[in-house]
Structure formats: C-alpha cells, structure tokens
Specification:
single chain, Rossmann fold
Length: about 290
C-alpha cells in the first residue's frame, strides 16, 4: 500500500482546504493543516512564504523531520492539539500536508528530502482576487523581497513590480497570483510526476475529478467517500457568500461558484488582473475563461 506523504500546495483562497479535506476522508490519511504558517504552525516559521532550499535547510530540516513523526513543535492552538492527538492514534498513518504560499516555493525541497507526492492547485486570478477582496486580506511583498535566495533563484524579474508603492488591491492580488504560480508552473513543468489541478475543474465535476485523484494517490474511493464529496459540493449548498465566517464554509454548490467573481468585480478590476497575470494567466485560463 502506498504510504508516501502527500503535499498539497497553492495560494490561499484557492481551494487548498477543500482539496485537503476531501483527500483526507480515508481513515489512514492524517491531515496536517498549514505547518508553515507563522501564526499557527511550527514555531520555527516566523515569516510568511518561506523559501526553503539547500542554502537555509539547516534551520528547518530537523523540525520538519519531527513534523512527519507527529512530534512537531507547533504553536499552542486547537489545530496543534488535534495534530498531537493524531500522533497517539495507533496504526499506520499516511500524512497529508496542506501548505499555502511558502509551501509552493519550498515544494521541490520538501519532495526531494521527504519523498512526498505533490499536488498543486491553481485558481482563476480574478476569482482569487474576488475572494481576497471579500476577506480584505492584503499582502506585504517585503515577505518575498527580503528573501535573497528566493529573489535570486526565481523572482528577480518581478522585483520592480513588487517594490511599487501604493498598489491598488487588484494590482496587489494579480501580482501575488503571478509570483507564486510562476514558480509553481516551473516546478510542475520540470517534475512530470507532479499533479496540478484547477479549482474550477474540481468544482465543475467534483466526483469524477476526486475519483481520479484517489486513483493517482492509491486511495480507495468508496461509496461513503463519494457520498461525502457530493455532500460537500452539491447544488443544495450555499453558492455565494459575503461575510468572513460564511467564506470559510466548505460545503458549497461547487458548480455555481466558478463564475461568482464576475458578480463582484468591475470590468476595470478584471482588466488589471488580466494584464498583470499576462501569459501565465492565459496559459491556465484562456480567453473564454474571462
């Protein structure tokens, strides 16, 4: 039986939680949520979107080794209590880690050092911005600019744009989508065994898409699991949300949310996002998707 850990990586507000929850339905799969989050994750992480490579691995390697053994030094919170309790459950465990942002940048290092199976997820740039706008989640690009190795290895082409003052929310979101998914695209292109899914494809045909992912990862797709996926993606669920608490609800009318962003963004905002994400945006979301 395949016991390789699974890493799910993508931008926040891109479906990572839904994807992780649906893939961790089997009893043997143990879900660890955002261990690289500086607010709630392992204590060794104090910054957002950390890029781990051979240059700085000495700081992170020992703590991540403990993570897979359920001995990780988490900040004290409810997710940490669940994590520690999971370590006490007898029997073999297949770890599934959900990481956002920095997990994308560190993905190659993580896969190489811990023999992980990698699953990336990407969401339409305009839908990503619409979700950030609803949550009022902003981003400080100094989190990336101060990481010399990340800038040198990947993000130097975007340095001037990231240093721009007084960016609009739409400009900020479009650039964030670009600089994270730019690296994810590079990794997926040169690692043929990695899987990348679009949030929209999962939403439009949830059961078939998840059944294929279960097959790829060697997980049993039972009738009970199919039922749970239908419950979380069926037409009877909420389709559009306007406040923070409802935005965290996982049970959604998946098909209907794909184009919800069109109701919440102006034509000007969409044009800004489209111009910034450019060729990479069009690679994954061609003209008909806008």
């Amino acid at each position: 039986m395949n016991r390789k850990p699974i890493l799910i990586a993508g931008l926040h507000r891109s479906g990572t939680t839904w994807l992780a929850k649906m893939l961790s339905l089997p009893w043997e799969v143990k879900y660890i949520s955002e261990p690289f989050n500086p607010n709630t994750g392992l204590k060794v992480f104090t910054d957002w979107m950390v890029y781990i490579s051979e240059a700085n691995q000495a700081k992170y390697l020992p703590e991540i080794e403990k993570l897979f053994k359920f001995r990780g030094k988490f900040r004290f919170n409810l997710p940490a209590l669940k994590y520690w309790a999971t370590g006490l459950v007898p029997g073999q465990k297949r770890v599934l880690i959900k990481g956002v942002g920095g997990a994308v940048y560190s993905a190659e290092w993580l896969v190489k050092n811990f023999d992980l199976e990698m699953l990336g997820i990407i969401r339409h740039p305009a839908a990503f911005y619409a979700s950030l706008k609803r949550m009022n989640w902003r981003f400080d690009f100094n989190n990336l600019l101060k990481q010399d190795d990340l800038m040198k290895d990947y993000l130097s082409p975007f340095k001037d744009k990231m240093e721009k003052k007084d960016m609009s929310f739409a400009e900020e979101a479009g650039l964030l989508w670009l600089v994270v998914n730019y690296v994810l695209d590079i990794y997926v292109t040169r690692n043929s065994n990695w899987i990348l899914v679009r949030h929209e494809d999962l939403s439009a045909n949830s059961v078939d898409q998840y059944q294929e992912l279960y097959r790829r990862f060697g997980l049993d797709f039972t009738p009970q699991i199919e039922k749970a996926i239908r419950v979380h993606s069926g037409a009877g669920n909420v389709s559009d949300v306007s406040d923070y608490k409802k935005a965290l609800i996982l049970k959604r009318d998946s098909k209907s949310i794909v184009k919800n962003w069109q109701k919440h963004l102006s034509a000007g905002e969409v044009e800004i996002i489209r111009n910034i994400t450019g060729q990479l945006g069009e690679k994954y979301y061609p003209k008909e998707d806008w």
